[in-house]
Amino acid sequence: MDYQNLSRTVSHALRHEPWLYELELDDAGWVPLTALLAALRVERREWRDLGLADLLEMIARSEKKRHEIDGDRIRAFYGHSLPGKLSKQQSAPPAWLYHGTSPEVAELIQREGLRPMGRQYVHLSVDTETAMQVGGRKAAAPVLLKVDATAAYAAGAAFYHGNEMVWLADEVQAEFIMLQAK
User: Fold this and answer.
1) What does the pLDDT read at residue 86?
2) pLDDT at residue 89, as a whole number
3) d(C-alpha 179, C-alpha 182), whole Å
4) What is the architecture, at CATH level 2, of domain 96-179?
5) What SS3 state is found at 140?
6) Which helix (H) or strand (E) segment is 6 a member of?
7) Tell me, what's the pLDDT at 166?
8) Residue 67 confidence (pLDDT)
9) Is the pLDDT at 80 greater than 70, yes or no?
10) Cβ atoms within 10 A of the Cβ of 6, count?
């Protein structure tokens, strides 16, 4: 195991771009260990069996103590470049938001809508590049979905400003989601 590389990736996920790993940090920067491990297992083939012991070893080997584990959660101590904390205040979203996913899941979403699927919120991107990067974690050839956020909001969907790259929603009905042409 390359613990230095693992530490760099964990730092990136917890300090800089958690939305790329579909992670939600709480107000103090904590994220569930299970969520981080699931994201890391998808990130690299050699990490498919990554476990808590590997994260503990990563922390123990680090010269600079960058991360801490408390019970069933982990966070980075410092160095966050995030524009702010994830806010849960409901607000009007931009006109269009995007969601990258696998072709199989895209078909289901177009029938049933976007739901959190075990998370607190649906993650939506403000740009197509970020959405495709997230979708690329789920499929070699991801599909881009375009959400008419203005219409969904007008119809009663709750949206929350996450940060400059991400919006969160409780759910989005299928009628407001369309396949984005490449």
Assistant:
1) 45
2) 75
3) 9
4) Alpha-Beta Barrel (3.20)
5) coil
6) helix 3-11
7) 84
8) 92
9) no
10) 22
Distance CA 147, CA 3 (A): 39
Tokens of 138: 């789920």
Domain 3-76 falls under CATH 2.40.30.10: no
- Name the average pLDDT for the chain: 89
Distance (Å, whole) CA 130 – CA 98: 9
Nearest CA-CA partner of 98 in 142, 123, 131: 131
Using the structure block, give the residue that is written with the tokens 């994201």: 39
Count of Cβ atoms closer than 10 Å to residue 148 Cβ: 17
**What 8-state DSSP symbol labels residue 38?**
H
Question: In angstroms, rounded to a whole number, what is the distance separating the alpha carbons of residues 34 and 178?
Answer: 31
What is the per-residue pLDDT for 50?
A: 96
User: φ, ψ for residue 42 (rounded to 5)?
Assistant: -80, -30
Determine how β-strand 177-179 pairs with β-strand 122-125: unpaired
Distance, in Å, from the CA atom of 125 to the CA atom of 94, rounded to the nearest integer, reads 10
User: Does an H or E element contain 179, and which?
Assistant: strand 177-179
What local confidence, expressed as pLDDT, does residue 114 receive? 97
| Amino acid in position 16 | H
pLDDT at 115 over 70: yes
Q: Where are the domains of the chain?
A: 3-76, 96-179
CA dihedral 128, 133, 138, 143 (to 10 degrees): 30
Indicate the pLDDT class of residue 117, thresholds 50, 70 and 90.
Answer: confident
